[in-house]
Design brief:
- The structure is a single chain.
- It contains 17 helices and 18 strands.
- The protein is an alpha/beta fold.
- The chain has an 8-stranded mixed β-sheet with strand order 5-12-6-11-10-7-9-8, sandwiched between helices. Strands 13-18-17-14-16-15 form a 6-stranded parallel β-sheet.
- Helix 4 runs parallel beside helix 5 (201-215), helix 8 (287-295) packs across helix 10 and helix 16 crosses helix 17 (538-550).
- The structure holds adenosine-5'-triphosphate.
- The site of adenosine-5'-triphosphate has 20 residues, from helix 5.
Length: 607
């Protein structure tokens, strides 16, 4: 029995280095940042003895063995019972209850929404995937004893339940990144994977995690107050992306018994804490909200077996690195080697690769496609447009689209701007001019952000004006056109932005408005377009030449080899000190990277 705060500190589990170790029950969990603190009369963390079932996974064998501490998970689905906000009823919060209908304790069918959407858009199946587009894609792996790739899902032992969900997702065969990354991860190897936008990275890290959890035997988790002990942690830089990964992971783990929970900023934390109390195997989170939950002792990372960072280069750039280090290195997560770590992105600058290697152990580096580049599926146009002409130019584009019938439900347009104010103003102006638009940026409430995204996805407002908060990861079907109304400062941001179209083998169009203010982007943009077999206008080539001579190019990919993603370990310089990163040209002057994400003050837009 815990009698005092000091006792609870003494009794707490301190820095487990053995993720497999079963811990004796304690009544109060003390988060690592509070351990060894002097006793206080007011414990900062409420001590609750709880009879709630812990998340023990004992002998869980998949769909046929479907039982766990809290009851059977293999109940037939009885359809989606809406509670909370559905978007159709208006008001309130989107309920992301981990896919459970609490009223009836039944797992909600996550595929129902897809079926409804397919029906609404007259689509029967995922037939748009053009795998031929990927056939001659270059693939590069490095590291010791790299496990060989597979050609089909059947070749991989993912388990019947997961295979069934893959079929439900209408995934017929693995995409190239999945062909390589899944066997590497299933072999237990750490992985740094670069693959082009829209190429299926989410499944590439979710499948091995879910399959690994299903294979775990006798995992006994501590029963400590209200603390949740997830087995896997997936971190992503934005709230919307975390929600999307959560939705995908729920589909992949439907009726497997694996419980997925999401925690992100801007939404009520109490609701998320309640969900965590009900049990969690895979926690998908944004870093800020996770740190909050860790400090409140509502989550402990001591049982983590799998750590995945999506958009890993973004997660390790200047804005997020301290939070990520805190989560991974200063709380109670097992050390690298004792957990499996997977880092994924479409872009991986070398200085970030070096930082990332701190989190990895004997890892495999995988590059699929011209990494850091855009896919050939996106037709890229760049037009010289003065600041003062941008609105009328956009209007011309939209009118042309309307005439060609590619606006509305079947053809969504995503317009990127530099600032939150700029997003509001452009949205307002578009609406005034008869183009239904909405916007997403860091100054909008989370409810507004989620509502805007839903309205855009459904085609109700087929134009979304966005800041970089929507640049990464979001998988919105039917985005036909991405307009860079304001170009970003960083070429990697450009790659991610235009990657909101041309996904999963489908074609897309990206138009950029360029003017003298974008001088520093001229060379990397021209290089990138050339790499992707796009027509580079003569005036841009001239800008690029001037930029190379005049030192105007401070962008990190100025050296741009044809195969942009290379394992930095191969350079033989990765043991060098900081001077390596201060080199001229090529990758990385520290002052330039991160520049694309704006000053530190705007980082909140990403949380
Ligand atoms: N094997 C597959 N077969 C068919 N479709 C797939 C397959 N794998 C993934 N997809 C679909 O491809 C789309 C893009 O996948 P995903 O969002 O994981 O891309 P990504 O590589 O993470 O992109 P980004 O770099 O923008 O984050 C999704 O709609 C997903 O459902």
């Amino acid at each position: 029995m815990t009698t005092s705060w000091a006792d609870s500190v003494d009794n707490s589990v301190i820095g487990s280095s053995d993720a497999n170790a079963a811990r004796p029950a304690r009544s109060t969990y003390v988060p690592p940042h509070l351990r060894n603190k002097p006793p206080s009369s007011e414990p900062p963390v409420a001590s609750h003895s709880s009879s709630l079932p812990a998340n023990d996974r004992v002998n869980y064998g998949g769909p046929t063995a479907g039982s766990r501490g809290g009851g059977s998970y293999n109940r037939p689905d009885h359809g989606r019972q809406e509670y909370g906000y559905s978007g159709r009823t208006g008001g309130g919060w989107n309920n992301r209850g981990g896919g459970w209908d609490r009223g009836r304790e039944r797992e909600v069918n996550p595929f129902e929404d897809d079926e409804a959407t397919d029906h609404a858009f007259g689509e029967q199946e995922n037939t748009g995937i053009n795998f031929d587009a990927y056939d001659d894609i270059p693939v590069d792996t490095s590291g010791e004893n790299v496990p060989p790739p597979v050609n089909t899902f059947a070749e991989i032992d993912l388990g019947e339940a997961l295979n069934h969900n893959i079929r439900r997702c209408k995934y017929v065969k693995p995409t190239p990144v999945q062909r390589y990354a899944i066997p590497i991860s299933l072999a237990g190897r750490d992985l740094m994977a670069c693959a082009q936008t829209g190429s299926g990275k989410t499944a590439a890290f979710c499948f091995p995690i879910i399959s690994g959890i299903l294979k775990m035997q006798h995992v006994q988790r501590p029963r400590i107050g209200r603390t949740a002990f997830p087995l896997a942690l997936i971190l992503s830089p934005t709230r919307e992306l975390s929600c999307q990964i959560h939705d995908e992971a729920k589909k992949f783990s439907y009726q497997t018994g694996v419980k997925v929970v999401v925690a992100y900023g801007g939404a009520p934390i109490n609701q998320q804490m309640r969900e965590l109390e009900r049990g969690v195997d895979i926690l998908v989170a944004t870093p800020g909200r996770l740190v909050d939950l860790l400090e409140r002792a509502r989550v402990s990372l001591q049982m983590i077996r799998y750590l995945a960072l999506d958009e890993a280069d973004r997660m390790l750039d200047m804005g997020f690195e301290p939070q990520i280090r805190k989560i991974v290195e200063q709380m109670d997560m097992p050390l690298q080697g004792l957990r499996q770590t997977m880092l994924f992105s479409a872009t991986f600058p070398k200085e970030i690769q070096r930082l990332a290697s701190d989190f990895l152990s004997n890892y495999v580096f995988l590059a699929v496609g011209r990494v850091g580049s855009s896919t050939d599926l996106i037709a890229q146009r760049v037009e010289y447009v003065l600041e003062s002409d941008k609105r009328s130019h956009l209007m011309d584009l939209l009118h042309a689209q309307r005439e060609n019938g590619i606006i509305g439900k079947q053809g969504l347009t995503l317009v990127f701007v530099e600032t939150k104010k700029g997003a509001d103003a452009l949205e307002h102006w578009l609406c005034l001019n008869g183009f239904p638009a909405t916007s997403i940026h860091g100054d909008r409430t989370q409810q507004e952000r989620e509502l805007a995204l839903r309205s855009f996805k459904s085609g109700n407002t087929p134009i979304l004006v966005a800041t970089d908060v929507a640049a990464r990861g979001l998988d919105i079907p039917r985005v036909a056109h991405v307009v860079n109304f304001d170009l970003p400062n960083d070429i990697d941001d450009y790659v991610h932005r235009i990657g909101r179209t041309g996904r999963a083998g489908k074609m897309g169009l990206a138009t950029a408005f360029f003017n003298d203010n974008n001088f520093s982007l001229a060379k990397p943009l021209a290089d990138l377009m050339q790499e992707a077999n796009q027509e580079v206008p003569a005036w841009l080539t001239r800008f690029a030449a001037r930029a190379s001579y005049g030192g105007g190019n401070r962008n990190r990919r100025s050296g741009g080899s044809r195969f942009g993603g290379r394992d930095f370990r191969r350079d033989g310089q990765h043991n060098k000190g900081p001077e390596y990163y201060g080199g001229t040209g090529g990758y990385g002057v520290p002052a330039s990277y991160g520049g694309g994400y704006g000053p530190p003050g705007v980082a909140s837009a990403w949380d």
